[in-house]
Design goal:
Blueprint lengths: L1 H15 L3 E2 L2 H5 L17 E8 L2 E9 L4 E9 L15 H4 L25 H4 L4 E5 L9 H6 L6 E5 H22 L5 E8 L13 E9 L5 E10 L6 E4 L1 H12 L8
Antiparallel strand pairs: 1-2, 2-3, 3-4, 4-7, 5-6, 7-8, 8-9, 9-10
Bound molecules: 2-acetamido-2-deoxy-beta-D-glucopyranose (3 copies).
Length: 263
Amino acid sequence: MLLLLHVLMLSLLSSGSAKVVQNFESECGQFFANGKSPTRFNESQYKQICQTLNNDFYYATFYDTHNKIPVYSAYKFEGIMGCTRIESWYIEPQIDDPNKGQNMDFGRTVNIHMRGINQALNRDYDNSGYDRGHLAPVYLANSQSCADATFSLTNAAPQAKCFNRIFWWDEELSLGTHLKTACSSQPVYIVTGVVPDPNNSNRVNVPSHFWTAYCCLDQNNRCSDSGGVIGTNDNNSNIQKMSESDLEEELKNLYGKTFQLFQ
Ligand SMILES: *[C@@H]1O[C@H](CO)[C@@H](O)[C@H](O)[C@H]1NC(C)=O
Ligand SMILES: *[C@@H]1O[C@H](CO)[C@@H](O)[C@H](O)[C@H]1NC(C)=O
Ligand SMILES: *[C@@H]1O[C@H](CO)[C@@H](O)[C@H](O)[C@H]1NC(C)=O
């Protein structure tokens, strides 16, 4: 009886504290248009994260523990909130140790020998010559606590400095401006992702491309306005704007498998 109670309590505790989840569509589907996520690859290296800070969900990330960068982060846009940057970065304790708590934090409770085995740490970026490039960005965050929650290294990938600070920043600005006017009364869903570079052998992969797609849903739950942009990860980034379906085609070629953005 005692044993049974113990097992029951353990299972209740663990199911209540899962932020790295089996299925982020059912656990935090509010970040996906029509509750459907972009394509999820099946290999066990990929983890689904409902990004949690102080017990609230802010966005969802599909994370690649092998390359130690996300595949994509999905978030909702609700206007330009003028959020500020906290400039210190969290990690995801459950990615290294499933027994740890559900909130992003500095990982100090994770055993030193396990910390970073499945994810990037600050030291991977320090002196690397690359920025910690946000996927879900501060600029498009829908609250200050959401902006704070974007500072997880599971939501970042090494990004060439000029690309991050000039070209990709311009894309975030112009997307925000477009959405504010074009989709002001509609739910807006955005996904930002990266493509790992198969030729890069760093502990944390330096991706070859960053990309973003958006969808403004109409009353029939269709994307009435959508689009995409993709840029090469170098200081003179070649950035191309395209339709959502052309971006899917481009990503299919780059990932080497079918990739669907919105459903
Ligand atoms: C993953 O596996 C499921 C079930 O076997 C399959 O339906 C789905 O198409 C697979 N996804 C990918 C991206 O291969
Ligand atoms: C980009 O430019 C910065 C500053 O000039 C330099 O430190 C960095 O190494 C360059 N990065 C790449 C990937 O070329
Ligand atoms: C990787 O290297 C191969 C062989 O040099 C090259 O053909 C390919 O374009 C490279 N891939 C990327 C993403 O740079």
